[in-house]
TrEMBL record:
Name of a matching Pfam family: Snf7
High-level lineage: Eukaryota, Metazoa, Ecdysozoa, Nematoda, Enoplea
Regions crossing the membrane: 12-33
Protein name: Charged multivesicular body protein 2b
Classification via InterPro entries: Snf7_fam (IPR005024)
PANTHER family: CHARGED MULTIVESICULAR BODY PROTEIN
Length: 234
């Protein structure tokens, strides 16, 4: 008996372990295969559309039966069969009541379908807002206000230094250009004074030197030609 009890205890323990493992496995795996809210709402809309189609099909069938009952009532009235006429009239009344209930149910299903469509739209909006919130949170985490403010202050300080440097460079260039203009004006004034005094400037001296050199060269050539001509005559 003791061995049998130990056997059943072992079997029960193994079953308990297996059930616990299966429950844990289902709890871990099922979220990956579970439908999202949008998919569930889409399936419910599909079911409602199928139900509306079934109701429309049923109403068409009721309309055909109503037409047949009306023909039978006309025939029973022509035959003056009161019992059959009463039964057919009751059937016609029940048929019309069923048709009215079908129309009411179809209207309710249409309203439910519209509500489901609105729920799907709201779910999409909520998902978009959730995504936007996560994105904004990431941006806020990356762009810290204090750090951004310090960066802007550094940028302003650097820009101010660059402006000061540009102003200093422009002032220096203006001074240099002004000095060069003064030097050119002084050179012009000096040339005018020297021209008035009849003194050749350094700019004109090379030209005069070249003219004198050319004149001397021509004189030497002329003398050489004369001497050669005299020798030939002798």
């Amino acid at each position: 008996l003791t061995s049998v009890n130990n056997y059943y205890d072992c079997v029960y323990f193994i079953k308990y372990i297996l059930n616990s493992f299966l429950q844990l496995l289902v709890a871990v795996i099922m979220p990956f295969f579970r439908k999202t809210d949008t998919e569930v709402l889409r399936d419910s809309r599909r079911v409602l559309r199928h139900a509306e189609c079934d109701l429309k099909r049923d109403r068409r069938h009721l309309a055909r039966e109503e037409h047949l009952l009306q023909e039978q009532i006309k025939q029973a009235a022509a035959c003056k069969d009161q019992a059959l006429l009463a039964v057919l009239c009751k059937q016609l009344v029940k048929l019309r009541e069923q048709n009215a209930r079908s129309c009411q149910l179809s209207a309710k299903l249409s309203g439910m379908n519209s509500d489901t469509r609105l729920i799907v739209s709201n779910a999409n909006v909520a998902g978009s807002m959730k995504t936007a919130a996560k994105t904004m949170q990431k941006v806020n985490d990356r762009l810290r206000p204090l750090k951004l403010a310090k960066s802007m202050q550094k940028f302003d300080a650097t820009a101010a230094k660059m402006e000061m440097t540009e102003e200093m460079i422009s002032d220096t260039l203006d001074n240099v250009l002004a000095e060069s203009d003064d030097e050119s004006q002084e050179a012009l004034i000096l040339d005018q004074v020297l021209d008035e005094l009849g003194i050749e400037t350094a700019a004109k001296l090379p030209a005069v030197y070249n003219d004198r050199k050319a004149a001397c060269t021509s004189t030497v050539k002329r003398d050489q030609q004369r001497s050669e001509f005299g020798k030939l005559q002798k």
